[in-house]
Amino acid sequence: MNKKWVKYIFILFLSGLVWNSCKPDDDVILPTNCDDLLAPGQTCGAPTPYTFTSPSTLTKVAPPLDNPLTEEGIYLGRLLFYDPILSLDSTQSCASCHHQENAFTDPVKVSKGITGALGRRNSMALFNLLWHREGFFWDGRSVTLKDQVTKPVTDPIEMAHVTFCDALKKLRQSALYREHFCKTFGDDEITQERYEKALEQFLVTIVSDNSKFDKIERSEPGNSYTFEELQGRAIFFGEPPAGGDCFHCHGSSTFGSHEFMNNGLDKTFNDFGRFDFTEKENDKGKFKVPSLRNIAFTAPYMHDGRFATLEDVINFYANDVQPNSPNLDPLMKHKNTEFKLSLTEQDKQNLISYLMTLSDSSLTTNPAFANPF
Fold first, then answer.
1. Within a 10 A sphere around the Cβ of 202, how many other Cβ atoms?
2. Which residues contact 362 (CB under 8 A, 6 or more apart)?
3. pLDDT of 64-92, one tens digit each?
4. Which residues contact 357 (CB under 8 A, 6 or more apart)?
5. Buried-most residue among 12, 261, 369, 370 (CB within 10 A)?
């Protein structure tokens, strides 16, 4: 048989498998209406609208117009975030690699999947996601948050489902999820689109705006910078060589950027970053610029978690930027100093003191974001 036809038939066979896996399971008896899922006397009713208030210290944004926030939808997303049911062997959840106490990141260089296999990049923090643009993940391969929340479920190193439909089957077999999808969407149909909407609703409510920096910006009584913090602030926003020049990449209200940059970590790459998604030569070595908010909780640092401490990070930027790294961002070339910063040890400690004011301990303890089980 012609090889072309063999390949064609094989693709049709796989397509049939995927299509069949998405059909409701024959052995799952689905209720005919919401009332069958609820306790006696309990009714579904319309979901309760959730009022989102944009923080005063962050650029004004609005929640997604195509996914109105509701109390029920946010709670459903929270259940899904913490439930290991989404992994192939029901041992790992989203929260396994995004811990609340670590500002929803993982305190290791790279996380382990259900088989013990290691990923290749540090887990990114999950807060203030409404302010993200130009893609999610370090390489921006998910344009939207809805797309981002599906990828770990079928990643062979992470949750390892062969298809997303396999995960949907498990949710459809759960009375708990049929009840909460019903409360959120008006009936108990469980689809990928509804899963994505529920996760998005929970994740966009994880807002961090209660750091010392925020309190000072709001002129809250009893909050002011120490001398060391003020000195560090001057270094953060100062031009080199005496300044740290941090603000060019981390100067927005999120203390991050929508850009993808090569910050000069390596002369040669073992991870091509943004290039893996765009396949553009000038994207090799570029990664999303992360937020410096909550930096007290998000060690280790960089896309591969190579730096254990903030001292390590600052020493790198002061002394070790690789000038010949391909596609090095022009901002890394410190003025007239051949990629060096003139920072004393005290300057570095003052800078760290200022960076600590960006961390919001209430994020790590807020019960609204905690494990509901």
1. 24
2. 210
3. 999 999 999 999 999 999 999 999 999 99
4. 211, 212, 213, 216, 225, 229
5. 369
